[in-house]
Automatic annotation (TrEMBL):
Pfam families: HTH_27 (PF13463). It comes from the Bacteria. It comes from Streptococcus panodentis. Gene3D superfamilies: Winged helix-like DNA-binding domain superfamily/Winged helix DNA-binding domain. InterPro entries: HTH_MarR-typ, MarR/SlyA-like, WH-like_DNA-bd_sf, WH_DNA-bd_sf. The lineage of its organism: Bacteria, Bacillati, Bacillota, Bacilli, Lactobacillales. Residues 1-135 form the HTH marR-type domain. SUPFAM superfamilies: Winged helix' DNA-binding domain. This is MarR family transcriptional regulator.
Length: 154
C-alpha cells in the first residue's frame, strides 16, 4: 500500500501535467507555450524588468528564465535593452507584437479558468488547501507579488 502523501504527490504532478497540456492546446494557435505566456503576462504588467526581476515573479521557472526570454526575443515578442545607467544591466519589455498578444492570452486564460472550474468541484476550497501548503515558501512571495494569493495576512 502506497502512503497517502506519496499518492497525493503523484496525483498532484499528474493533474498539473494534464492542466498544462490542456492550456498549451489553447495557446497553440498563438504560437506560444504556457510558460512563454506567463513571461508575456508578467512583462505586460510589470515591464521593464531585469531578468532577475522577471524570475522573481514567474511561477513556471525556479531558476533563471533566460531560455524562455531568448525564445520570445527570437519570436519578436520581447525586447532586451541595455540600461543607459549601467551597461552591465539590461531591461526586458514587450515588443508591439508581444503587447498585441496580451488580450488573446487573457482570452485563452479565461477559457482555461472556466475549464478548470468545470473539472474541479470545490475549486475554491482546493485553492485554499494549496495556499496553506505553500505558506512560507518562495512561491507564496511570487503569488503575492502577482496578486494571485487570496489568503488573508496573519
Amino acid at each position: 500500500m502506497v502512503a497517502e502523501g506519496i499518492r497525493f504527490g503523484y496525483l498532484f504532478r499528474s493533474a498539473e501535467s494534464l492542466a498544462t497540456r490542456e492550456y498549451g492546446k489553447l495557446l497553440e494557435p498563438l504560437g506560444i507555450t504556457p510558460n512563454q505566456s506567463e513571461v508575456l503576462l508578467v512583462l505586460g504588467e510589470h515591464a521593464p524588468l531585469s531578468l532577475k526581476g522577471l524570475g522573481e515573479s514567474l511561477i513556471c521557472e525556479e531558476k533563471s528564465p533566460s531560455r524562455l526570454v531568448q525564445a520570445l526575443i527570437k519570436k519578436g515578442l520581447v525586447k532586451k535593452e541595455i540600461s543607459s545607467k549601467d551597461k552591465r544591466s539590461s531591461r526586458l519589455s514587450l515588443t508591439a507584437a508581444g503587447a498585441d498578444l496580451l488580450p488573446k492570452i487573457a482570452e485563452q486564460e479565461a477559457i482555461f479558468g472556466k475549464y478548470l472550474a468545470q473539472q474541479v468541484p470545490n475549486l475554491e476550497a482546493f485553492s485554499q488547501i494549496l495556499e496553506e501548503f505553500l505558506v512560507d515558501s518562495f512561491y507564496e512571495d511570487k503569488l503575492k507579488r502577482r496578486s494571485l494569493w487570496r489568503q488573508e495576512e496573519k
